[in-house]
């Protein structure tokens, strides 16, 4: 069960401290996703983000549409649960920039403001989840925590706003949602019809055996 935890204060590190932490980090990496410290003090590295989206996302059908808003060719679908994506970022990239880069990488047409980045930590058999502010720097958090994802992992979710604010969605998005709901409703209806048809066949077969003259 997730437990909300307050945001931890940012501790500013000297260039020497950053260099030491990067060396320690790289010595513990097992997937070759190491960090690199540049001469200007900015470092680069990789973070993995798990997608935990409850609502469907709208994806542009081609790269040429990336300059447009929503078009009739955009498609909406549910992202597979547990999908993990890797991003190469720098220590200057903020949470908001990471969300925008992640959506751009997969041609997601939805407004980045609909999403939030969370950090998830495992401590004392409990899972602590905290929504990161737009100004925080994910690569710094990754560096401080080390490369082990069980110590710290990142999760992309929709904003937890209680009820869905449908007015924040565009007309094409809402139309796509309706098409998805209609499809799911029809699929569930067919499943129910097959299930009850099977029950009816078994009942009729049982009744035939009971009333069979003998």
TrEMBL record:
SUPFAM superfamilies: Ubiquitin-like
UniProt entry keywords in alphabetical sequence: Cytoplasm, Cytoskeleton, Metal-binding, Microtubule, Phosphoprotein, Zinc, Zinc-finger
Segments forming domain Ras-associating: 71-161
GO BP term, example: signal transduction
Residue ranges annotated for the SARAH domain, each copy included: 163-210
InterPro entries found in the cross-reference section: RA_dom (IPR000159), RASSF1-6 (IPR033614), SARAH_dom (IPR011524), Ubiquitin-like_domsf (IPR029071)
Name of the protein described by the UniProt record: RASF3 protein
Gene name of this polypeptide: Rassf3
């Amino acid at each position: 069960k997730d437990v909300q935890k307050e945001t931890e204060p940012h501790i500013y590190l000297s260039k020497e401290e950053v260099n030491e932490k990067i060396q320690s980090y790289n010595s513990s990496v097992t997937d070759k996703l190491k960090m690199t410290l540049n001469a200007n003090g900015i470092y680069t590295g990789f973070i993995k983000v798990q997608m935990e989206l409850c609502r469907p996302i709208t994806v542009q059908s081609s790269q040429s549409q990336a300059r447009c808003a929503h078009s009739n060719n955009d498609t909406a679908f549910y992202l597979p649960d547990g999908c993990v994506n890797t991003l190469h970022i720098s220590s200057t990239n903020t949470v908001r920039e990471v969300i925008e880069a992640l959506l751009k990488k997969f041609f997601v047409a939805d407004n980045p403001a609909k999403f939030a980045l969370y950090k998830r930590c495992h401590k004392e058999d409990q899972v602590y989840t905290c929504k990161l502010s737009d100004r925080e720097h994910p690569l710094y958090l990754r560096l401080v925590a080390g490369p082990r994802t069980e110590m710290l992992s990142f999760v992309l979710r929709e904003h937890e706003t209680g009820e869905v604010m449908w007015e924040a969605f565009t007309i094409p998005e809402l139309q796509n949602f309706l098409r998805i709901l209609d499809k799911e409703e029809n699929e569930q209806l067919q499943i129910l019809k097959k299930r009850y048809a099977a029950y009816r066949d078994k009942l009729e077969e049982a009744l035939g055996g009971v009333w069979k003259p003998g």
